[in-house]
Each structure stands twice: as structure tokens, then as C-alpha cells.
Design a protein that fits this description.
This protein is an alpha/beta fold. α3 links the parallel β3 and β4. The chain has a nine-stranded mixed β-sheet with strand order 1-2-4-3-5-6-7-8-9, with helices on both faces. It is 27% helix and 20% strand.
């Protein structure tokens, strides 16, 4: 045996390890620990139910900090914990006006806190506080508490609930994502938002016209925070209510997957995103950073 021949197996092993860590094709072998569910497809994201079976429980009206509601969570325990999102209804609304979102989003691999507000008249700042209270209750006292990763939380809401989601994002910049559905707020400048934010507006919204609400909200959020603006063609302010809106659900789920689960497999649906056609009137974004 020539000198140092006995070292070759060890050197080859080291080279292979370095190849995994530094730039070679096998680098993807370092998996994202937060990925939940199979590789995404349009059909899978648009389906009424995702790959996870879902449990649900009522949240009492007297729960401190918000007005109760319902919580939904995946029953699968083989994947560890899941990210969580609290969702607020709009002015005069209750959780059941947007109830379809609970099981639909939870079945894609999230704990979903569908909350009521303390009163149906609460303005956006109060709704922001209540969204955070609902998240805090979910991670500490809910039946799904042990199923939640406390570092991966998000907020969403319709109308004043969308405005409340912005308030929550400013108050708690550690949130991983926010989704605004036909958002309404008297505050127009949201330059303090550091949370990746998806704004979904409606072309024919007469209650929160996009030119006065959704569009300036989107424009004021810094590009570095990551953001996208989706305007639904021929839709009005009530598009999220009662019946599932497939386009809203698709991009809401995709945004949560990308930024709560850090799942770059979903970049393909956001960047460059949908062209104006069919249900989509307009789409703008900063494109998720890899």
C-alpha cells in the first residue's frame, strides 16, 4: 500500500459531507423542518380539504381577551407541531360568517383560531389586540396548545379584521405572516409593518374601496417586509363570507405555507404569481426572498 492510501476512504467521506453542505446538487438534502404535507399542486391547494384530518372545539364566550369562537387543528401527531393563525371577522360579523376557512386551512397543516370579537362593533385597534389574545390563548390554554409551534404564528381578518391584522403585526413584529381580506382602517400608513403581508382586495368593493384601503395599505408596507397584493375580479366587500372563495383560499394558504412554514415549494404560486385573468383582476408582489 502506498503512503496515505489508507486515508482515502476517510477523505472521500469528508468530501461527500462537504458536497452536501456547500453548494453541490445534494444540498437540498438539508430539509426544511417546518414543511407539512406533500409537494404542492394547484389542485391540492384549491381543494376543499387538504391532506390532514381535522378536529375542532368550541371556545367559550367568556374567554379572556376576545369573544370566543372555534378552534381547528390537524389530528396527525407524526409531523410534530404546526403553525397557527388567528382569524377575525369584520364589522358586525362573527366567526361563523367566515367559518369555511377553519377546516379548509387547518386541513392544509395549520391550527386555526376562528375568533369572535368582544362586540361586533369593535374597531381595528381592538381587533388587533384581540387577535393577539386569541393566539396567546391558543398556544397556552386551548385543546390544540400542544400541537402549536409558538414561534410560527400568523393573523388574518376580513374588513375591520384586516385592519386589526395590521395593528397586530405592528404590535407584534415576530408574527410570521398576515393576510388581509377586503381590509378597512382609518389608518393608511403601515410603514411600521415588518410582517410578510398578503392584501386581498375586491374590484367592486364599495365599503372599503381598494383605492382608499387595500392599495394604500399595500403601498405603505416596506418592500423588505415581503408583501403581495391580489385584487379579485368583479368581487365586492363580502367575497369571503359564508361560501368558500377558491382564489382567496388558494393564495391565503400559499402565503401561510410560504412564510409560516418557510416552505419555498410554494414560491412557484407567488412569484411571478397569477396573470390578470378569470378571477384575478390584478396581482403585485415583491417576490419571496429565497
Amino acid at each position: 500500500m502506498r503512503p496515505r492510501d489508507h486515508l482515502k476512504p476517510a477523505l472521500i467521506t469528508v468530501a461527500l459531507i462537504l458536497g452536501l453542505v456547500v453548494g453541490g446538487a445534494p444540498a437540498h438534502a438539508v430539509a426544511n423542518p417546518y414543511e407539512r404535507g406533500p409537494a404542492p399542486t394547484n389542485a391540492g391547494i384549491e381543494a376543499a380539504r387538504g391532506p390532514f384530518a381535522v378536529a375542532q372545539a368550541g371556545v367559550p364566550l367568556g374567554t379572556p381577551g376576545f369573544g370566543g369562537g372555534q378552534i381547528f387543528w390537524p389530528t396527525d401527531t407524526s409531523h410534530g407541531t404546526f403553525g397557527a393563525v388567528a382569524i377575525s371577522p369584520g364589522f358586525l360579523g362573527t366567526w361563523d360568517t367566515i367559518s369555511w376557512m377553519g377546516p379548509r386551512i387547518a386541513s392544509q397543516g395549520f391550527v386555526v383560531m376562528m375568533m369572535n370579537t368582544a362586540t361586533i362593533f369593535d374597531p381595528p385597534p381592538s381587533r388587533g389586540d384581540q387577535l393577539l389574545a386569541a393566539l396567546d390563548w391558543a398556544v397556552t390554554r386551548s385543546p390544540a396548545a400542544s400541537r402549536i409551534d409558538r414561534t410560527r404564528l400568523a393573523v388574518a381578518g376580513h374588513s375591520m379584521g384586516g385592519g386589526g391584522s395590521l395593528e397586530a403585526a405592528v404590535d407584534r413584529p415576530s408574527l410570521q405572516a398576515a393576510v388581509l381580506l377586503a381590509p378597512w382602517s382609518t389608518t393608511k400608513n403601515w410603514s411600521a409593518v415588518r410582517t410578510p403581508t398578503l392584501v386581498i382586495g375586491a374590484e367592486n368593493d364599495a365599503i372599503a374601496p381598494v383605492a382608499e384601503h387595500a392599495e394604500p395599505f399595500y403601498a405603505s408596507i416596506p418592500d423588505a417586509s415581503e408583501k403581495a397584493y391580489l385584487e379579485l375580479n368583479d368581487a365586492d366587500h363580502l367575497f369571503p363570507l359564508f361560501v368558500a372563495n377558491v382564489t382567496e383560499a388558494k393564495y391565503m394558504i400559499t402565503w401561510l405555507k410560504r412564510f409560516v412554514d418557510n416552505d419555498t415549494r410554494y414560491d412557484q404560486f407567488l412569484c411571478p404569481g397569477p396573470a390578470p385573468s378569470g378571477p384575478v383582476q390584478e396581482y403585485r408582489n415583491t417576490c419571496p426572498m429565497a
